[in-house]
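Weekly modeling sync, notes
Attendees: S.R. (lead), two postdocs, one rotation student

Agenda item 3: backlog of single-chain predictions. S.R. asked that every request posted to the team notebook include the full sequence so nobody has to chase files. The rotation student volunteered to paste the first one in as an example of the format we agreed on. Action items at the bottom.

Example entry:
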Amino acid sequence: MSSTPTLRIAVIGGGPAGLMAAQAAADRGAQVALFDAMPSVGRKFLLAGRGGMNITHAENYQSFVTRYGRQSHRLRPALDQFGPQQVRDWVHGLGVETFVGSSSRVFPTDMKAAPLLRAWLHRLREGGVQFHMRHRWRGWQDGQLVFDTPEGVRLLAFDAVILALGGGSWARLGSDGAWVPLLQAQGVAVQPLVPANCGFDVDWSAHFSSRHAGEPLTTVAITAMDIDGVRVKRQGQFVITAGGVEGSLIYALSAALREQIARDGSTTIWLDLTPDHSLERVIDEVTRPRGARSMSSHLQSRLGLKGVKSGLLRECVSAADFADPETLARAVKLLPVTLKRPRPIDEAISSAGGVSFDGIDGSMLRAMPGVFVAGEMLDWEAPTGGYLLTACLAGGKAAGEQAVTWLETSLSP
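Predicted structure, as returned to the notebook:
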């Protein structure tokens, strides 16, 4: 009676996608070795959780899947199997309770990432996953994986490989995009890595920057063109930086803004500084007689416009228009701000670009049978709000399961 051969699978990358791929493969009976260049796994995961670990999002699932833009249909098969509710169930299974915040974002009850990661690693070790830290992957040699380690170069052979190496943001935590030429050398099509969920340069004047850098705009709306060229208006908040803008409202629009700048050299957003007031109300207030008061004092008295909002009007409206009450009122509701450049990729929360979906079957590279890819190294992007993490977990699970299924099929008589 013949015994079933042990399936040996390497997972390279210790972020959420890699850890979930390791779990999925181990749960299916594979012998899994996980490698990471860093001294410990989950470093970006832990840093992202410092302000509150946003695990997933509780909105209607049909709306949820649209947040992945043009690649929604590519990610949907994995998300259908391991979507927001399944992520929450999995977290609960690790002994961590969750709650839904006011914005429908889902968090652990203690808001922390570390207890969740500890429980997850404990489960992985119990499942037989072997961890190899400070192993920097350098590609292949004679069919074997090549790693630089503190003890020197190691060559290791496996039955299948799952790559979950992240994108190009936060290089100090391991996502440095160094894998791109390694895969391109093997004939794998890779779209250039570009910043996502990023800030943008505006090139403020020194006068404005020196007074308002670091100040938040907490009640504001932005009108812009979305990824499909449709005008959209969204309310939220963002921050003025020394040279531009960043924050959640900017990140939500960053994919479209980045593409518009790449195409046209710059793009414009329009700020509504009083989103709770109609244009008619603003015109009425601004055009009221102001007596001896300055226009700035008048705006503060009638509309509460002061500080950074007042500064933005001075920065973006000409002196002639500022002196014309009706023109100024319209600028309060639709203030043009020109964005010049996205911030560098290493400052971005995530990245776009990566392995082309046209070059994979499921999760396996067509150019390299037995090599699977998962997570942010694929060519997709999503806004913050739990969408990035959910898709990484779903993609990792799919890759782990598909690697085992492929091996079982390949090895069957």
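Discussion: group reviewed the output briefly. The CA atoms of residues 33 and 130 lie 5 Å apart.
Action items: rotation student to repeat for the remaining queue; S.R. to check formatting next week.
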